Amino acid sequence: MSERAAVDRAIGLYFEGMNGNDAAVVALTDDVVFTGPMQPEPLTGEAAVRQHISEIAPFVARMDRKQTLIDGDQAAVVLEFEGLNGVVIEGVDLFRVRDGRICFNQSFFDTRPLLAGAR
Questions:
Q1: Can you say how many angstroms the Cα of residue 90 is from the centroid of all Cα atoms in its chain?
Q2: Helices H, strands E: what count in the chain?
C-alpha cells in the first residue's frame, strides 16, 4: 500500500469510528498525541486518545470529510460534524500517520456554536 493510501485509510478509520461510535476501529500508535480546542492539555498515548474518542463519539450524529489534502505522512481534513443537538460545526483536523496508524491529530473548530447549543 502506498503512503498516500495508508494515510487515507487511517483517516477513514478515524471517521468510521466517530460515526459508528466505535473507538476500537481507529488505528492509533501507542504514542499518539491529540490536541483540540476543548482540551486544556494534549492527550498522549493510545489509551487516553481512544478513551477521548469513546467519550465524544456518542454525541456525534455525523462527521463528514469535505476535503482531504495529503502530503507524505501528513494530512489536513476539512470536515463538518453535527451533534445530536443539531448543531453543525465546520473544522479542520491535521493528522500525521506512521505505519498506517495515526500518531498525531490536532483539531481546530470554533467552539462558540457547540457551547451555545449546550445551553
A1: 13
A2: 3, 6
The DSSP 8-state label assigned to residue 56 in this structure reads H
Architecture of domain 3-117: Roll (3.10)
Q: Using the 8-state DSSP alphabet, how is residue 113 labeled?
A: H
Q: Grid coordinates representing 61? A: 450524529
| Under 8 Å between Cβ of 3 and 9 | no
Whether the model pTM is above 0.85:
yes
Residues paired with 96 in a beta bridge? 74, 104
Cβ atoms of 30 and 36 within 8 Å: the answer is: no
What cell numbers appear for 21 in the block?
461510535
d(CA 96, CA 10): 10
The domain ranges of the chain are: 3-117
Cell of 6: 495508508
Q: Could you report the per-residue pLDDT of 10-56, keeping only the tens digit for each?
A: 999 999 999 999 999 999 999 999 999 988 999 999 999 999 999 99
